[in-house]
Amino acid sequence: MAFQDYPVDTLMNITARPEIVFVRGEGSWLEDHTGRRYLDFVQGWAVNCLGHSPAVVVEALERQARKLINPSPAFYNEESIALAARLVRLSCFQRVFFANSGAEANEGAIKLARRWGRKFRSGAYEIITFDRSFHGRTIATMSASGKPGWDTLFAPQVPGFPKAILNDIESVERLIGPKTVAVMLEPVQGEAGVYPADLEFMQALRELTRERHLLLICDEVQTGVGRTGTLFAYQQYGIEPDIMTLGKGIGGGVPLAALLAREAVSVFEHGDQGGTYNGNPLMCAVGSAVIDEVSKPEFLANVRATGDYLSGRLTDLSNRLGLKGDRGRGLLRALDLGADLGARIVELARNDSLLINSPRPATLRFMSSLNVTRGEIDLMVEGVERAIGKARG
Ligand SMILES: *Cc1c(COP(=O)(O)O)cnc(C)c1O
User: Fold this and answer.
1) How far apart are CA 136 and CA 212, in angstroms?
2) Which atom of ligand 1 is nearest to 220's Cα?
3) N or C: which end of the chain has fewer CB within 10 A?
4) For the purposes of burial, counting CB atoms within 10 Å of the CB of 139, is it exposed (0-12), middle (13-18) or buried (19 or more)?
5) What is the 300 CA–ligand 1 centroid distance (Å)?
6) What is the number of the ligand 1 atom nearest to the C-alpha of 247?
7) What is residue 1's predicted lDDT score, i.e. its pLDDT?
8) pTM for the whole thing?
């Protein structure tokens, strides 16, 4: 079918999309409506941690679809219990609530913190978040986000999210007052352009929140489930948060997210929280299949080794082309272009059958599957080098 034959105008026009319709995916490759194949370093926006249509996900979907799809969130089902038990065993948390998207999990985290504030801190509700942070696209999570321009886009915002500066502990301390209940951050700011929290900052933040009797919330929607080389990014900081959210990778491509909390913080009462699809067995069966793969020590060791390899290749490229270098953790990496060429390079690479992302005008981001091969990384780096060459003219 030709692109013009698809009735694309029936979809709301919410973003500038190229004239490509994807029809098939396998591993690191996507195929469009003309049969053209693309090397994919976007992977559903850091979602497909095992690549496109991996066997373990397909098998879990097939098996579970025949068995039970949705008995209602008002009843227990085996798959949500099994996935919650895995997450509890592998993390520092004791309680899990499942959601359908990262934003919804973060909404849950905000509600839980406010509930805890009502119970233990005489109604405190303010959650300190960070400049340039990203927590989702609902009204409350947009208000929590520090994305420039979002404070006015759908005004009025939800109040109660003062913004501190990442890696500046005094900027957090200054904002703490009688209404403060929590501090919420991404261990690596993803949408901002891949900016990790420093080790000293994260440890000081845990100290500070403990001393002041505040909750520490880690939004690991992008950093969780192996992306940074450990199952959860907080594990690299030698700290334990009180609340964590997961999304993206946990479903390996299907809509699944989770809100995790320590026992003492799990203060929802009946009626406080819910949702028609929360914990549905079809998605939770996939979540368990993904977690079983990604949590293997040899799998995570390979993510770290592959992340180092990608970092090395990007550093070489940066040195050859006189760019500003590579940053990130594990397989969440960015290349600093030093010039606002990102959108142009993404387009040139796509015309050359390579999909990459530019979250900021001078930044390229690489969000491969976690089992990407070194050969695929080499191909990607060659494609990026060609695209940068063309973009510079
Ligand atoms: C993507 C993302 C979200 C939002 O997740 P959705 O599934 O798109 O709602 C929230 N927080 C972080 C850190 C993210 O990267």
Assistant:
1) 27
2) 13
3) C
4) middle
5) 22
6) 7
7) 86
8) 0.98
pLDDT of residue 140: 98
Taking a C-beta distance cutoff of 8 angstroms, is the pair 28, 55 a contact? no
**Does ligand 1 come within 6 angstroms of the Cβ of 140?**
no
Place of tokens 């919804």: 104
Q: Cα–Cα distances in Å, from 56 out to 187, 225, 253?
A: 28, 16, 12
User: CA-to-CA distance for 393 and 377, rounded, in angstroms?
Assistant: 24
- What are the tens digits of pLDDT across the range 177-211? 999 999 999 999 999 999 999 999 999 999 999 99
- For residue 279 and ligand 1, the question of a CB distance below 6 A is answered with no
Where are the chain's structural domains? 3-52+297-392, 55-294
Q: How many residues does the chain have?
A: 393
Beta strand 22-26 pairing with 37-40: unpaired
pLDDT in tens, 55-89: 999 999 999 999 999 999 999 999 999 999 999 99
DSSP string for 299-310: HHHHHHHHHHHH
Q: Hey, how many other C-beta atoms are within 10 angstroms of the C-beta on 32? A: 17
Does the Cβ of 187 fall within 6 Å of ligand 1? no
Helix or strand run (H / E) with residue 246 = strand 243-246
CATH topology of domain 55-294: Aspartate Aminotransferase; domain 2 (3.40.640)
Ligand 1 atom with the shortest distance to the CA of 138: 9
Distance 223 CA to ligand 1 centre (A): 10
Question: Bridge-partner residues for 27, per DSSP?
Answer: 52
Report the CATH architecture of 3-52+297-392.
Answer: Alpha-Beta Complex (3.90)
Nearest CA to ligand 1 atom 5: 102
Cα-to-centroid distance, 94 and ligand 1 (Å): 23
Residues 6+ apart with CB under 8 A from 104: 136, 138, 257, 275
The tokens describing 369, both together, are 């599957």
